[in-house]
Specification:
mainly alpha; single chain
């Protein structure tokens, strides 16, 4: 059962009312990183670990109870910052103790309600279970997965976010009493962070979560790592390591197989992951090369005096080179009886064009 002490964990005070900062502080009352979210999250998570981890159950319940106390501190601070808005708004305007001297009654009412109209028309000067923009609190803020290692990591992240929100809030007020309250709450978030971190360390192994383990063949790559299928140590000039001889998905570091060769184009080499081909692709490339060689052999002339090639005109072609614009063929004629050779070559090209 819960026991409620009448005294706050920290004696909250404010130096003067400040409805503007009260609206910002609602973020820690009913926001996605607020105290109610933390209390409900730890409370729900505790039930799943009652039997396997009874000590962690007690820890989660204790911290959830403390978060409810922090929620009370935040709510009391918001109410004190709204002093003059709750109950005696017009009388407070007569005293001029909220926004300073020289402010009229109408200006005071307008200023108080323009900050957050809900303070006046819904809560009567008290906090409302919303964030600073008026978005209502919702149960989807709570993260509970029934796996303690996952939940503890969620709790560590939640305490980190709550700590940084308090740090941001401290930049928007110069009230020393409010700053002392925020500093206390921020320090307790750090203490909870350390408790959750220590609890996670007592569970070994704590990663990966769940019962099923990950497949070691598909490990996570680092930014300097690439993946490629290496067929039995082929595809590199360097000696393949033992794990690369199995032909499975292998982890190839770019710096290991991209050694400079001293050639002018050594810096323009393809990435190792593209140069490593599988066995099927290598056989396909070999058959393509054989077919290409057969086509080139069929194009050779019977006398071997010249070779007819389908190509573009070279920039440094000699005068003996002739271009057949119709066929798109370049014929290199030998010295001597060039005219007869050109006619024979054009006739032969027309006969063999289908190749």
């Amino acid at each position: 059962m819960f026991y409620h002490s009448k005294e706050l964990q920290f004696k909250a005070r404010v130096s003067k009312p400040d409805p503007r900062f009260a609206r910002l502080l609602l973020e820690q009352f009913g926001g996605g990183n607020g105290e109610l979210k933390a209390a409900m999250q730890y409370f729900v998570q505790a039930f799943a670990c009652h039997n396997p981890y009874p000590d962690k159950y007690d820890m989660l319940m204790d911290i959830a109870t403390e978060e409810l106390g922090h929620l009370e501190i935040v709510g009391a601070t918001i109410q004190m910052l709204l002093a003059g808005v709750n109950g005696n708004l017009k009388d407070a305007a007569e005293r001029n103790d909220v926004f300073g001297e020289g402010i009229s009654k109408d200006d005071f009412i307008h200023s108080a309600f323009s900050v957050n109209p809900q303070f006046g028309v819904l809560t009567g000067g008290g906090p409302r279970l919303t964030d600073s923009n008026g978005v209502p609190w919702q149960g989807s803020y709570v993260n509970a997965n029934s796996d303690l290692t996952v939940d503890l990591r969620s709790d560590i992240a939640a305490e980190s976010r709550a700590k940084i929100v308090y740090e941001y809030l401290m930049q928007f007020t110069d009230d020393k009493d409010v700053l002392a309250t925020l500093n206390f709450l921020m320090t307790r978030e750090v203490a909870h962070f350390q408790q959750f971190e220590a609890a996670l360390d007592t569970i070994q192994p704590n990663f990966p979560p769940g019962v099923l383990q990950s497949d070691p063949a598909t490990a996570i790559s680092t930014p300097t790592t690439r993946w490629a299928r290496m067929p039995a140590g082929r595809g590199t000039k360097a000696k393949a390591p033992a794990w690369a001889k199995s032909g499975c998905m292998s982890k190839i570091r770019a710096s290991r197989y991209s050694k400079p060769t001293g050639s002018p184009n050594s810096n323009r080499r393809a990435h190792p992951a593209r140069r490593l081909r599988c066995a099927a692709r290598t056989r396909s490339s070999a058959s393509s090369a054989a077919a290409k060689s057969a086509r080139l052999r069929r194009r050779k002339t019977s006398s071997g005096a010249s070779t007819i090639r389908r190509t573009r005109k070279r920039p440094g072609a000699s005068r003996s080179d002739r271009i057949d614009a119709t066929a798109g063929l370049q014929v290199r004629a030998p010295r001597g009886n060039s005219g007869a050779f050109i006619l024979f070559s054009m006739y032969f090209a027309a006969k063999t064009r289908k190749y």
